Amino acid sequence: MLPDKLLKIHQGRHALMEERVNFIPNDIHVSESMENLITIITAPNSAGKSIYLKQVGIIVYLAHIGCFVPATSAEIGIIDSIYSRIHNIESIHQDASSFFHDLHQMANVMENSSTRSLILIDEFGSGTNVNEGKSLLVACIEELSKRCSAAPITLFSTHYLDIVDLCESREMVKEITIESTFDDSGRLQTTHKIVDGRCPLQYANELHNIRRSLENQETFTDERLEDEVEKKLYLETHIQPHQKLVIQSAGNLLRYMDTNWKAISTDNMPPIISSLKVFSLKSQVLIDDSTYLALEIFSTATHPSGFMKGLKGAEQMGFSLYRLLNQCQSKIGSDELKMILQQPTNDISELNKRYDTIEWCLNQQNTSIVVRLKRMMKQVYEISRCFKKILENPDKMYFWKIFRSSVAHAYKICELCRDSVREGENSGLIEELGEAVKDQVEIMVVFMAITEIVDIDEGMQENKFIVQEGFDVELDNQKDYLRKIQMNIPEVTQAELRKYFPVFESCEYTMVPEMGFVIAIKSPMASPSDSSSGPGMGSKFLFQTNDLFYYSTPCCMELNDKYGHMYNDICENESLLAINQDLSEEYEHLLSLCWDSATLSASFYVIQTMEMFIVPEITDLRPMFSYTHNLFRQLNPIAVMASGHESFLREVMTLLKLPEDANPKDYTATAIHGTSEPNNFMVFPQSEKSMLNNRQRLWSIKISGTLTLHFM
């Protein structure tokens, strides 16, 4: 006997719908002991069946990302996956009708769902005639019912009022409906409240007029069925459609490397892998694409301007859970929130940590601290791109400025968290952030080194790497000597300027990087291209910036021959002090510090002050979890691959048509943070082997394995 499964929500609400309308809350109480794991909802159109299914799905989903839920109270058992069949999809270019996609989605649900799944099915079978639709729905209900106490928590909505009567197996099945009445004029009115029982026949007939001549409906012929079955079997012998992660990883790798290799590669250095982060499916709640779409977790809206459609960055985030929850103070916080939404977890300790963080932030005693944290979070950026630019070219002072600011504010956030936690208080992530800097003296050393060595303000003006005065005595002496030379040009040289430039507002010698000494003239009376009234013979026009015109003369060449080596020596000495090596050694800690701060920014505490959300009670009565071959079929493009499990990896190898004598340990799958954008990749450390149907080869990069793009 498996442990009891539980889903008990009192006065639950749809998190998105209540933003727009006066929403009617509803309850749900499902458990193994009540023998109602399979719930059938019958009601007229527009009564709210689909909204109710989505409401339940969203509440369970929010609980598994560590967020408060919109309800008066909630007890939710841990689940390992959410599946749905709610949205109808047609694909003209694949010659696939909405009914075909319905069958495909339902087959995926029936094959991959486990005893700890949540299944949401809306009007399955409505895309064909009544007889076929009923038969398909009855088959699904009976299949789940035969699992008895091992059946997943399942909610069906349908217009087939007698569907339960047609089922031979009715274990764990319960019927509910949405309360409806006729008003004085005879019109049907719904209260949107869930009640026990079946929808009365007269209500459904009144609204839908479903009396149809069934004998005239064309049936689903055996010939068509056999053709589709054969197609599916043929495709699955090569690539199983449920194993989307492997398919997308292979295709995206080749596409990404073809189009973006220059963005992650330079002439003088290989791509930089900054850190390694391993994820496991053991605590992952698996959700397929259709469920993400049905629950409106993400929703992309196109740009309102027609000429912007299709351009990079033109798409905007539409009304969705992500947009509702995104109260982050920084771009890196929004990215971390997106990753959390894409990786719901059933790890009790992780969920409790997130709940404790939200409660700590809502505590009125901590209000002033939260305000300070929010202010500092605005100054934390994703530093991997800055780090890459610094290594490629230290003269880009803008990235030095962002890098220093991000590290400084991330460190201050951790220090504030460390000083704010009271003894014996459950503060979740706040306490973790405080612990992150207790023994990390190296991080502060790097920050102080940047502050003491790099003159960011002057470097921004001159657009080059400049060392602070006072840090290196020998370098300061070289700069002072060169500065005196520029200020004390001999009188004969000044007279020579009048010879070449008889008419000018101001004229002086200056040093230009890579060019040496030049003459800068402000507002000449004639255009440099006018030889008749321009500068004298022997001068050469170089370039113009704003109202300054730069020339080279024989005197400039003499100065370069005499003092030019000093400028080169200064540049060389400054490049040696660019502390690239120190940054590389401590970069992983610095990156972790910034992402920890981003996690706090994504902890959803702001929305809780606006909405009546409560902490759900999470129960975990699962038996010991183990990986099986069937688990691999539950992978979706959002899940991150596990590593180190031989049975799991053996199935991956079988799918990729690898030799039988291959060692699974050579084919681990992990995820990393890289310095190029996007920052999430997967690495398959392996030799070059054939992939899929032995015609595609993995693109191997000689770093630590094969670099594979991982889309989040």
From TrEMBL:
It comes from the Eukaryota. SUPFAM superfamilies: DNA repair protein MutS, domain III (SSF48334), P-loop containing nucleoside triphosphate hydrolases (SSF52540). GO terms for cellular component: nucleus. One of its GO terms (biological process) is mismatch repair. Pfam families: MutS_III, MutS_V. Residues 117-133 form the DNA mismatch repair proteins mutS family domain. SMART domains: MUTSac, MUTSd. Keywords: ATP-binding, DNA-binding, Nucleotide-binding. One of its GO terms (molecular function) is mismatched DNA binding. Gene3D superfamilies: 1.10.1420.10, P-loop containing nucleotide triphosphate hydrolases. Belongs to the DNA mismatch repair MutS family. This is DNA mismatch repair proteins mutS family domain-containing protein. It comes from Phlebotomus papatasi.
